[in-house]
Amino acid sequence: MSKLFRHRLTDLNYPHLAPETRKKSFATAITLGLLIFLIFGLGQLGNATIKTIKAVTVSINGLTDIYTTKATEVGDLIAELNIQEPIVAVTPRPESRLTAATLVTVTTKPTDRNSIVAANMQATIDKVAADIKKQEEALKVPKSPVREGYASWYVFGNGMNTASREFPRGTKVHVIAIKSGKSVDVVVNDFGPEDWTGMSLDLNHTAFAKLAPLGAGIINVRYYKI
Fold this sequence. Notes:
Elements: H1 3-13, H2 19-51, E1 54-60, E2 63-69, H3 74-81, E3 87-91, E4 103-108, H4 112-139, E5 147-154, E6 161-164, E7 172-177, E8 183-190, E9 201-204, H5 205-209, E10 219-225
Parallel strand pairs: 1-4, 5-9, 6-8
Antiparallel strand pairs: 1-2, 3-4, 5-10, 6-9, 7-8, 7-10
């Protein structure tokens, strides 16, 4: 065995390495350590992302609500929602990444139950509309004494008008049909009806029809300036 070969073998098997060799070994160890640390850190970050709870806006057949979830994709959230009706469309696509800023829209196939829900919803809407109308009526503060009398109808003016002996032309009057509870706002555009008729107001036929059928001819009303 040559002297040079024995020298190289000694360098590989014993710690008494040349200074340059030791420096390279140290640098390699540091690089490997940093690489392992980076891989471990990315893994922990991924786990943290998966476990993050977020609030996502979801609209199902037009009804919108907020759901909290740990899902990372749209499809995972849809599975969590456990929607019973057949799903016909989802946006964004199920494989899309899910964030707190994502708006998930789901459309399902109509079923018989949906018609019942729709009917109940319409009844609720009607009730709310009626409540709003009552509130609006309450906001119509009388600017004159509240009077009661009879109203007839005739054809004159451009629609929501009335003839009155008590209020000057241009006065806005709120008229309530006592029997039905229906009401209209009209503007005085004529003088009348004649005192001998016993009528307090002579409504244009368009306004009268909103309170009662024209065939009624005469109705009992309560009215005041607004």
